[in-house]
């Protein structure tokens, strides 16, 4: 994102790039800079969504503030240290405590959509859980379900049954499960007040000095599914997604076989996505949108 010589002046070192975030070290801190990249089906797409990184980072920051009493998080600051001038990173930066990330995606599902719906239709279950019969698409589940997967460095994440998840997470399993469910419920209730249905989401946790921290991004349209409450009230079988699902649907519609070459997106879907991500920020954290509006438009 920036020439390395500029960064070295400040003692900032590039560590690596994730699919969406670029990681740097500075003193004892880890810096995450959210890019405009977009990944789908485990591939980084050739097109970027302008300002998506700013929108995502602002949403995640808003949630870290809101949830810090439920679970400690790794966030240290969203500001550059004094004397460091990197305007390109404005609104995209999170300075965090480096943790050892747990190799699990802590997925919580509150509604029957996506992969959960597919499993329900095929086998009458979601993850390890049996679900009442005859529920319609988009129905709220009787209670939110914890359906963890592996977090694969390469390739696809695999669902984890309870026994395997317990083997990986050891003594922390119950605590992490409870944290994930509590964070989802808190997020769902807050989103509902703001006119959004939080259908499902994914958390990541890390360990540092034996303590659990919430890390990475938090309840964003990249890591969650959102519908608008007013559309949900009207007809829950016909809601537009305000999240990354619109790109997955687009890529499936054009018949991509999910192997390289990775297709380009249409200008229309790029615009649509930017608008919908912006709508989520606008509903959840309007004061944050106001602060970054000049950088987005
Ligand atoms: N506090 C933290 N300490 C260590 N690693 C972190 C922390 N927060 C996030 N990470 C890691 O940084 C990366 C963020 O970049 P991202 O583009 O989201 O990667 P990915 O391709 O794995 O989704 C992830 O691999 C995540 O596990
Ligand atoms: Mg990620």
TrEMBL record:
Q: SAICAR synthetase/ADE2 N-terminal domain location, by residue?
A: 15-259
Listed Gene3D superfamilies: ATP-grasp fold, B domain (3.30.470.20), Phosphorylase Kinase, domain 1 (3.30.200.20)
Q: Name one GO cellular component term.
A: cytoplasm
Q: What class of enzyme is it?
A: ligase
Pathway(s) of this molecule: Purine metabolism; IMP biosynthesis via de novo pathway; 5-amino-1-(5-phospho-D-ribosyl)imidazole-4-carboxamide from 5-amino-1-(5-phospho-D-ribosyl)imidazole-4-carboxylate: step 1/2
Keyword Nucleotide-binding among UniProt keywords: yes
Sorted alphabetically, which Pfam families does this protein's record hold?
SAICAR_synt
Offer an example of a GO molecular function term for this protein.
Answer: phosphoribosylaminoimidazolesuccinocarboxamide synthase activity
Instruction: Please give the catalytic activity noted in the UniProt record.
Output: 5-amino-1-(5-phospho-D-ribosyl)imidazole-4-carboxylate + L-aspartate + ATP = (2S)-2-[5-amino-1-(5-phospho-beta-D-ribosyl)imidazole-4-carboxamido]succinate + ADP + phosphate + 2 H(+)
HAMAP family cross-referenced by the UniProt entry = SAICAR_synth
Q: Which family does it belong to?
A: Belongs to the SAICAR synthetase family.
Q: What is this protein called?
A: Phosphoribosylaminoimidazole-succinocarboxamide synthase
Q: Which organism is it from?
A: Methylacidiphilum caldifontis
């Amino acid at each position: 994102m920036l020439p390395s010589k500029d960064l070295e002046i400040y003692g900032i070192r590039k560590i690596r790039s994730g699919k969406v975030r670029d990681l740097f070290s500075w003193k004892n801190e880890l810096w995450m800079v959210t890019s405009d990249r977009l990944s789908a089906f485990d591939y980084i797409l050739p097109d970027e969504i302008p300002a998506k990184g700013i929108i995502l980072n602002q949403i995640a920051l808003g949630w870290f503030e809101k949830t810090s009493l439920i679970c400690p998080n790794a966030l240290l600051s969203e500001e550059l240290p004094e004397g460091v001038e990197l305007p390109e990173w404005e609104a995209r930066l999170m300075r965090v405590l480096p943790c050892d990330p747990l190799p699990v995606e802590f997925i919580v599902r509150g509604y029957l959509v996506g992969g959960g719906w597919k499993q329900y239709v095929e086998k009458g279950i979601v993850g390890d859980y049996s679900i009442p019969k005859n529920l319609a698409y988009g129905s709220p589940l009787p209670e939110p379900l914890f359906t963890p997967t592996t977090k694969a460095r390469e390739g696809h994440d695999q669902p984890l049954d309870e026994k395997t998840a317990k083997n990986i997470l050891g003594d922390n399993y119950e605590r992490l499960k409870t944290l994930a469910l509590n964070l989802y419920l808190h997020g769902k209730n807050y989103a509902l007040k703001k006119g959004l249905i939080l259908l499902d989401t994914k958390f990541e946790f890390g360990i540092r000095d034996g303590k659990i921290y919430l890390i990475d991004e938090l309840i964003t349209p990249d890591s969650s599914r959102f519908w608008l409450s007013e559309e949900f009230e009207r007809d829950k079988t016909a809601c537009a997604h305000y999240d990354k699902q619109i790109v997955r649907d687009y890529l499936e519609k054009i018949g991509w076989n999910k192997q390289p070459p990775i297709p380009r997106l249409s200008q229309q879907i790029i615009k649509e996505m930017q608008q919908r991500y912006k709508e989520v920020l606008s509903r959840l954290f309007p004061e944050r949108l106001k602060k970054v509006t000049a950088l987005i438009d």
